[in-house]
Amino acid sequence: MPTSKVERLVNLVIALLSTRGYITAEKIRNSVAGYSESPSHEAFSRMFERDKNELRDLGIPLEVGRVSATDPTEGYRINREAYALPPVELTPDEVAAVAVATQLWESPELITATHGALLKLRAAGVDVDPEAPVEIASPVSQPGLRGSEKVLGILLSAIDSRQAVQFPHRSSRSEPYTTRTVEPWGVITEKGRWYLVGHDRDRGATRTFRLSRIGAEVTPIGSPGAVTVPEGVDLRQIVAEAIAEAPTGVQATVWVADGRGTALRRAGRSLGPRELAGRAGEVIELELSASDRVAREITGYGADAIVLEPQSLREDVLARLRAQAGEPT
């Protein structure tokens, strides 16, 4: 799959921030992902010129200078002091947005890509600063994105190229996958989860898909540029309306094993720890705004989530578990 323009620009910024000196255009072409795909030197030069102008338009302080005192070849770097932000104060919403970006940066796929980029620079003879301001954290558990990094990468590339995608999707962990064909408009986060918003060609309507429910086999289809995002569309509002539920006042209590049921814990309120059948866990209280959805969600955790009350929900979950196991209900 061709490297998207956004990914290429990010790779270029990483490279120019990670070197002590100036990098020649030739080394950038050979070492930075996205440029080696240029079919000729002329095509690379045009692409690189456009990218340099775009970085400058974004306010990134791109500098030009001699590679060394003995080598007059022209090279490029980013002025770190001018690039660094002054102290800023963030609102709670802005802090949350930065936290999401940090989680994405820490995903295993991006960590691997960044390490690969820096290794290529070193292999090309570029003096990479070990204290460069491109910090790579070790992978951590990402409740909202864990396991979906590859899916996210493909979707972002398709959105950037305005290309339709096809993927397997299931409405809950206990349901089978069905193939969906979607014109992707954007990906956003809401309440710690990641969602794709777009036009579902199979349903003929706008739809929202949680990334954790999308299978890994996401395939771009059709021609790039074929997808048009409706003018003025509000992705966040679409997701908010899709996941909103009217309160019913009916509560359910569910025992959740320690270290399990992250989504259930986030959606409910803790009533305290409790041991069940010799296993440590916690009892949480959930709003039964949509009993069918809650039952599907709990069923997906198997023995790690046990309904205590109400009895109707408990029986619903047990029936679903028996059906999965092929037992008579």
UniProtKB/TrEMBL annotation:
What domain of life does the UniProt record list for this protein's source? Bacteria
Q: Per its UniProt record, what PROSITE patterns does this chain match?
A: WYL
**All residue ranges annotated as the WYL domain in the record:** 151-215
Q: Where is the WCX domain?
A: 250-323
**UniProt-recorded name of the protein:** Protein PafB
The record lists the organism as Mycobacterium bourgelatii
